[in-house]
Amino acid sequence: MTEQIPAPVSTTDAPAPVAGPLTVREISADEAVETLLELGGSFLQTPAWGRAKAGWRRTHLGWFDASGRRVGAGLVLSRTIPRLSRSYAYLPEGPGLPWDVVASDPAAWLDPLVAWAKAHKAFALRLGYPVVSRIWDREPVKKQVSENGLLSFTSLPTAVDNPAARRLEAWLDRNRWLPLGADGVAVGQPRLLCVVDLRGRTDAELLKGMNQQWRRNVKKAEKAGVQVRTVGPEGLDTFHALYVESAQRDNFLPRPKAYFDVMARSFASEGGGDHDGAVSARFYEAHVDGDVLASALMIRFGRTFSYLYGGSTERNRDARASNALQWQAMRDAAAAGCEAYDFRGFNTSLGATSPLTGLLLFKLGAGADVVEMVGERELVINRFWHLAFARAMAARIAINKRRKAARATSDAADI
């Protein structure tokens, strides 16, 4: 891969100078989407994602410079302690800011957000910093997985080490923003992602970036007559049936159909108007003569095309429908001008025999590199309420685990 930083979240090539000091205030949903698209923000910062997260209050914030120009945007999801006004505030993979500029003076950008959180009685503030930290080429990672099982590849040499991330992380450490894993307070996004860099690459170049097995499977799918189509929310039933079948086969706990229904409809309603084409959610279906063998939920937001969830059947496995589906989606993303095809995250504690390790190797075989983000950090504003909330959530999680039975293995890279 080239020595670039192909982030799932990117910034404009030459952001205009920002006149300080900065202020943060509430903005409309449309204003938030407009700014996020300009800056390359995450789909997790959109109004559609906020609508999909039941039980969380959503607030859209804008960053403004001294001239009144809007220079950033973020979605704050808040969960309130019952019968009290104290809340836990969370910005998943956000906010959308010019992060190369932010890294040179984080206090100027983050202190106004902290002040807003305090004014609104948040006892803790959690951000999923969408800044690329390091990137590993796929080949050394695959070798490490094959030979050692556990994914201890973080000690391997990197293809990219982002100095802006190092500056940001040093500031966060000094100012008591504590790093969090994906199993934190009831919510969390993966720090390690699998991302295919699409920039300036033709279909032939993308195909060449896949491993030999992937290229063979793409050819097998073509010979088997696999065709790929896209459908809207009406594809939910087929998708969920295949997703549940995959969950039973690979021993993970499936999400309910209603979760995907809300998500698909939320993003479908986000598109159109000024954002037509830049925001979309579609189900991709790979079929042979109408028999759907694989289905996946895809979301495009701006310059990033993301594969969220998928499922497949044991029927006609030799047709390699899953390979055909991903290959078509990747080509669609490149044709639409996207810069990154985001396979999303994975669990770093997987053993070599885990079915989910096979899923990781599937993503790497498609030409994805491992991208590490600065990831999730938490600032505790009020220790008393934070401790009370953490204990309450821990008890809730323990109860849910007992209810859901021991057979399912939770995927820590889940969305």
TrEMBL record:
It comes from the Bacteria. Belongs to the FemABX family. It comes from Terrabacter ginsenosidimutans. InterPro entries: Acyl_CoA_acyltransferase, BioF2-like_GNAT_dom, FEMABX, PG_Glycine_Bridge_Synth. The keyword Acyltransferase applies. SUPFAM superfamilies: Acyl-CoA N-acyltransferases (Nat). The keyword Acyltransferase applies. It holds the Pfam family Acetyltransf_6. PROSITE patterns: FEMABX. This is Peptidoglycan bridge formation glycyltransferase FemY. The lineage of its organism: Bacteria, Bacillati, Actinomycetota, Actinomycetes, Micrococcales. Residues 212-343 form the BioF2-like acetyltransferase domain.
